[in-house]
């Protein structure tokens, strides 16, 4: 069955969660300095702690990276298919796009090494499917993957960063969020808020590519001459939090850490009731404390 896709899509309604008299103030019951819990269905801020204060998102930045890259990849794939046939199978076209081969460059691996980033493990000259670059960006938070995804999408990291900031403006958060790189490396000009990161996560979970990548607990890359037995990568936040939740299920997440932000994470939960929530925290002293903060907030404020 094919799906008719128009050349232009209607602008999506902005997701603008609102505080109310019922919004709870989160205090010292969690270690994190910044936090927000948002009810996606109601569009309300359930609870917050310095939710609109400037903070550094570290590798939570990569949620915006995959969102911008996914939307551009989908747009390019559909446009190319429409040039050949106006009746297209959108899902098949995008799947084919994700099989496109991307060559990992020395610039990408060097950038990751120089900045002491987490890595996927890709090597200079390795040719991998685009879907592996998406997964490498999120699951192990690969610096070389994020850099290569940016260059693949826009031709240069600088051009891609411009796209990230344009997307922030489109989401209505351009006044309080700004990106300076696609990796999350500390930079005074790479900043956001807990509230804004929730808005970005909500948009990402509406995109099929992003939702899949952010929800993968584990993933095996395609075999290459450099890695004939694949690379097995994991989203440790998802794997660790599932044993600690007493209700609901966290189905998507991205963590981050730089000294200036502490341990941080953005996650997306489907509660026992079927409602969905987004939680963001930053400023924890360890990855486990960050996870515990999310567990506490979900168990306390969602239903």
Using the CA coordinates, give the radius of gyration: 19 Å
**Range of helix content:** 25-40%
User: Which blocks of ≥5 consecutive residues have pLDDT under 50?
Assistant: 1-10
In DSSP terms (H or I, runs of 4 or more residues), the helix count works out at 10
Gross geometry = globular
Nearest-integer average pLDDT = 94
Task: Please report the distance between the alpha carbons of the first and last residues.
Answer: 38 Å
Count of β-strands: 12
Any overview of this molecule?
With 303 residues, this protein is of the alpha+beta class. It is built from ten helices and twelve strands. The relative contact order is 0.18.
Which properties best describe this structure?
303 residues, six-stranded mixed sheet, 10 helices, globular, disordered N terminus
List the helices and strands and how they pair.
Layout: E1 3-4, E2 24-25, E3 34-39, E4 44-49, H1 61-84, E5 87-88, H2 90-98, E6 101-103, H3 106-114, E7 127-129, H4 130-138, H5 143-154, H6 157-170, H7 194-204, H8 208-215, E8 218-220, E9 232-234, H9 236-241, E10 249-258, E11 262-270, E12 276-284, H10 287-301
Parallel strand pairs: 2-4
Antiparallel strand pairs: 1-5, 3-4, 3-12, 6-7, 8-9, 10-11, 11-12
Helix pairs in contact: 1-2, 1-5, 1-7, 3-5, 4-5, 5-6
Please sum up the structure shown.
The protein is built from ten helices and twelve strands. Helix 1 runs parallel beside helix 5 and helix 3 packs across helix 5.
């Amino acid at each position: 069955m094919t799906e008719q896709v128009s050349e232009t899509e209607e602008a999506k309604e902005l997701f603008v969660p609102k505080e109310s008299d019922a919004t709870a103030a989160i205090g010292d019951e969690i270690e994190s300095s910044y936090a927000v819990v948002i009810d996606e269905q109601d569009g309300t801020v359930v609870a917050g702690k310095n939710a609109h204060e400037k903070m550094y998102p570290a590798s939570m930045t990569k949620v915006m990276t995959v969102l911008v890259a996914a939307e551009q990849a989908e747009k390019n794939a559909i446009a190319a298919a429409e040039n050949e046939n106006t009746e297209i199978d959108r899902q098949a076209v995008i799947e084919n796009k994700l099989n496109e081969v991307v060559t990992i460059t020395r610039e990408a691996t060097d950038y990751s090494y120089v900045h002491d980033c987490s890595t996927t493990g890709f090597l200079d000259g390795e040719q991998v499917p685009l879907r592996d670059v998406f997964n490498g960006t999120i699951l192990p938070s690969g610096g070389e993957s994020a850099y290569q995804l940016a260059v693949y999408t826009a031709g240069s990291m600088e051009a891609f960063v411009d796209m990230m900031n344009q997307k922030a403006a489109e989401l209505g958060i351009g006044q309080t969020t700004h990106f300076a790189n696609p990796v999350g490396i500390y930079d005074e000009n790479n900043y956001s808020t807990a509230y804004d990161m929730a808005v970005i996560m909500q948009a990402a979970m509406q995109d099929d590519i992003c939702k899949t990548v952010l929800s993968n607990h584990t993933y095996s890359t395609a075999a290459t001459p450099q890695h004939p037995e694949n690379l097995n990568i994991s989203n440790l936040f998802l794997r660790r939090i599932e044993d600690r939740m007493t209700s609901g299920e966290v189905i998507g997440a991205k963590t981050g850490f730089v000294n200036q932000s502490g341990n941080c994470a953005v996650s997306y939960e489907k509660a026992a009731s079927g409602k969905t929530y987004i939680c963001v925290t930053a400023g924890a002293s360890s990855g486990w404390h960050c996870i515990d903060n999310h567990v506490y907030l979900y168990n306390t404020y969602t239903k």
